[in-house]
Amino acid sequence: MKKYKYLKSVLMSFFIFTIFFICSEVKVQAMTNTDPQLGSVLKEVQVGEQVKAIDSRYGWWLIAENGKLAWCNAGPTSYWDKNTGNFPILLRINQKMNIHEAQVVYNYKKGQIIQVINGSVTGWWKVKTPDGYYGWVNSTNTSRNSSGKLIASSNVGAYFTADIAPLQQIKVVQPGEQIKAIDSRTGWWMIAENDRLGWISAGPISYWDNNTSTFPILLKANSKLAVNEVGIIYNYSKGEKITVVEGSVAGWWKVKTPNGYYGWINAKPTHYDSNKNLIASENLPVYFSGKEPSNSNEQLSKQQLVLREAYKHLGKPYVTAGKGPDAFDCSGFTSYVYRHAIGIEIGGWTGAQINSGREVSRADLQPGDLVFPHSNHVGIYVGNGQMIHAPQSGDVVKVAPIYKFWRARRIIN
């Protein structure tokens, strides 16, 4: 009898452990839905090691390591000191793990002029590439020419910035498979797949036929490749007017959003009204083209700068008292966005922010205004009756309709 009870106890423990393990695996798999596309292992970091982050996104840090940039899972890290909001941020590794090199978005040739859009952050320049994308370049591979312009002193790659890095894997294509591209960027094709858009590396790809320049372009995969979904930059509401900047390409419209960004929408859920305006037939996401607004940084309005900063943090988790950059509560999010976008301090909690700026009515709302559904919650108005906000525990930063209106404040005159 004692043997039977012992055996029963062992089997029950094994069963509980197995269920726990399976649940843990499911949880880990779910967390990888917004992983950046990871390159080769750059290094194994150890418990207690200090690393330096220059950018972040969706639970990942982009860290500088021996002249390269690498992705580090934010879960097993903590802040090294009291600086939790201004890059570079020092972090402590709390669990042994691999860090993976980030992907390169553009390759500069020796002597090529580099357009800098941010001062050096711990030895890295944030740059705008010749084809209109943002990236990070190691400053040790740069110098000044006789005119004082920054140039590449050797061939050097620009790494993806965190806000446009390829994210969730939506498909794996097989060797010989045909795929359809509707857009491209240096080293990448944007392909349409089951009403979604994804990035795929251009390296192991060849043309399917003689059409090599007019989109859509048919391509052939020469090896097994991951397709990573393009990020969403805006959501049209049902009935909203859409500004098209390119005719339909393989069932997709290239559009300019109300906030000045370019993106792609699926043409199926659209229709024309009696005035020949293209209208969203249902709530409709806009896939980010990867490019910034058509205006230069200097020409962007303060409202656009605020919204651009806010959109960078889509998908980041809500954490009580979170002040960023990797997690936020509602007032921590709005405070962080205003400070980093235009250098304005609006206070770190809702009670302070309700006294910032000036009062505006719901009818007078403009993008960038602070919106208060009630006294304990705040978001940023993005237009079309929607706000971007950090809603509640268990949720993430997202764009959503204003579900209730209490008050609003205009910070930008």
From TrEMBL:
Name of the protein: NLP/P60 protein
Organism superkingdom: Bacteria
Tagged with keyword Hydrolase: yes
Keywords, ordered alphabetically: Hydrolase, Protease, Thiol protease
Keyword Transferase: no
GO MF assignments: cysteine-type peptidase activity
One GO biological process term: proteolysis
Native species: Clostridium sporogenes
NlpC/P60 domain: residues covered: 300-413
Recorded family membership: Belongs to the peptidase C40 family.
